[in-house]
Structure formats: C-alpha cells, structure tokens
Amino acid sequence: MPSTLPFSRRTFAGVVGAAAAALLAGGVAAQTFPDRPLKIIVGAPAGGSADIIARVLGEGLSQQLGQPVIVDNKPGAAGLLGLQELLKSPRDGHTLMVAVNGIASELPHAMKLPVDPLKELRPVAELARTGLLLVAAPQVPATDVKSAVAYIRSQPGKISYASYSAGSMSHTLGLEFNKLAGTDMVHVGYRGSPPALVDVMGGSTPFMFDGPATSIPLVKAGKLRALATTAPQRMGVLPDVPTFAELGWKDLTEVVWMGLWNTPDVPAAHQARLREATLKVLQMPRVREQFAALALDPGSGASPEELGRMLRTASDKQAATLKAIGFKPE
Questions:
Q1: Residue 303 sits in which domain range?
Q2: Percentage of the chain modeled with pLDDT above 90
Q3: pLDDT of residue 68
Q4: Domain check: are 121 and 137 in the same one?
Q5: Are the C-beta atoms of residues 43 and 76 closer than 8 Å to each other?
Q6: Do 269 and 121 fall within a single domain?
Q7: Non-local CB neighbours of 48 within 8 Å, separated by 6+ positions
Q8: Which CATH number belongs to the domain containing residue 162 in this structure?
Q9: Number of neighbouring beta carbons within 10 Å of residue 308
Q10: Regarding beta strands 122-130 and 95-100, do their DSSP bridges make them parallel or antiparallel, or are they unpaired?
C-alpha cells in the first residue's frame, strides 16, 4: 500500500538536513563576521559629542570583534550627509553610523528628505542619553526658572530664544516652555549650537535649550548660566542645576539619545553580533567614565524593537508640535 504521507523518509531527511545546514551556515557567518575593517560614519564634525562617542565605541568594538574600526566624519545638512553615506554603503554590517535619535524622529520634520529614516534606519543599540539644558546669557537678571519667567513676561514679545536647528527638539522645547509658562519668547533658528551660543552669550538671543556637550564648558567658564535640565535626574557634572520635573514642569522632561545605527536589511546574525559587542563595550568602566565626562548617562539597554517604538512616538509628538505652529520643512 503506498504511503499517504506528503514526504518520504528520504525527502523528510533531506529537508531536515537542509534546515540544519542553513542554521549551521548562519552560525558560521556570525562567527566569521566581521571579516574586514568596520567603518562608523558620523554626520558631524570631529571633536563633537557624536565624534567622541564614535571613537570611544570604535576602540572598544575593535577589541571585541578583532577588526580595525575607522571613524569617517561626514558633517553637513544636520546629519543628512552621514545618513546618505550609510544608505549607499554595502548592507553587510561593516558600515555603521553614530547619530542622535533626532536623525529619525526630528530631521524628517525639519527638512524635506529624499528618504524616510524611520524606514531606512535600524537602531543597533542606544549608546548614551542625556537631557538638554535651558541656558541664559549671564547678563540676564534671572538665576532660576522662576525669575526667568518673570523677566520674559516683563517684556512681552521682545525676548527671544535660540535653537541649534529649526524643527529640532531645541526649537520645540521652547514652544512647550512658552505654553507651560504663559510666555511669548520668539524663536530664532541657527545652523548648529556654536553660532547660536555666541548670540546667547552676547545677550541678543538670551535663552536656549542646548545639549550639554556644547553648553557645559561655557557654563563652567561663567559665560552661560544653566537654569534647569530636561533630563529625568540632575547631571553629575552640574549637581546644583535642578530638573524641570523637580520644579513641577514634568512635561519638559525630555531625553536625547545617541545611537548606533545600520539598516534593516543587514543580516540578522550580523546585527546580533554587533549589538552583543556594543553592549559589552558600554559596560567597560573607562567607557562609562568617558561618557560621564560628557554629561551622558549609559544607554538604557532597550532592544532595537523598543527603540523603534520610541522613535515613532517621538516623531509623532514632534510632528504634532510643529504642525500646531504651521511650521513647514525647509
């Protein structure tokens, strides 16, 4: 009587053998990856926080993976040039990018892009996180948030605040501040923190929400006054500066995080090996010390899927805030 089973024993054995071979091939691929030097693209100039983080990470990854790691700076267009460089590179896991989460959640709302970063990028791991600082010109008669609000209200429509880029979190935090405080600061967008901070220090644009890497050295030098941070907890390098949450402004609790990125079509085994090595690097005491010196907390350890959900939520919030003021991408 002929068998009614869909597969003969020989066919079944062949299928099992093929599956085992595929699993073995995947394991071998993971073990042999990387098989040549890796490159980390940074869409920012040398010397900035993203560049420093990339170089610290690259040194650790080289030790973990046994291959040299080259950092390639591609500054310009708020990180877009770095993103484009990543997207035109081979999708085999040997090319990565270090960039702030705004590359996916803010940049698409600030300028017209030829690609959708939420679809084209995949976060490998969150490297570090921090909040922004509300800083003021030293000549402003305000030593805390309460007196800053009183000062702004005393000159309706005449006080401005800077952002390091129109459409960024530095911009929208000022909008949220206005709404919560009942103030009417006027936004002035710049192309990067350095030119913005020059005008903040000079007093012509006396307030700004800025990242700690660029503002803390100026605060310590007495050229800026730090009023509060959007981080969930106080920064270790500025222990006397309160969080907005402490002051009762919980809606101004916001973090920015620096991530390691590649693309979704990089083989899963390579993605997993990169993430495993990255998480080991982030546990190194010297790495944590170097990040702490930049006022950065270690990454949360969230999975790529969790980070993806966080990005989509942040993107939706950013879009809604900018839509409410009629902001149009450049």
A1: 36-129+256-324
A2: 77
A3: 98
A4: no
A5: yes
A6: yes
A7: 213, 214
A8: 3.40.190.10
A9: 17
A10: unpaired
Per-residue pLDDT of 291-304, as tens digits, reads 988 889 989 899 99
Q: In whole angstroms, what separates CA 268 from the centre of its chain?
A: 23
Q: Taking residues 172-182, what's their average pLDDT?
A: 96
> Are residues 279 and 214 part of one domain?
no
For residue 133, give the amino acid letter.
Answer: L
Residue 158 within a domain: yes
Contact 118, 315 (CB under 8 A): yes
Q: How confident is the model at residue 79 (pLDDT cuts 50, 70, 90)?
A: confident
Say yes or no: 138 and 243 in one domain.
Answer: yes
- pLDDT-derived band at 18, boundaries 50, 70, 90: very low
Q: Are 72 and 85 in contact (CB under 8 A)?
A: yes
Q: What predicted TM-score, i.e. pTM, was given to this entire model? A: 0.83
Please check whether residue 175 is in contact with residue 10, taking contact to mean a CB–CB distance below 8 angstroms. no
Residue spans of beta strands (DSSP E) within the chain? 38-42, 69-73, 95-100, 122-130, 133-136, 160-163, 186-189, 207-210, 225-229, 256-262, 297-298
Domain count, the chain: 2
- Per-residue three-class SS string for 55-100: HHHHHHHHHHHCCCEEEEECCCHHHHHHHHHHHCCCCCCCEEEEEE
The answer as to whether 23 is a domain residue is no
Query: Does residue 18 belong to any structural domain of this protein?
Result: no
How many beta carbons lie within 10 A of that of residue 40, not counting itself? 24
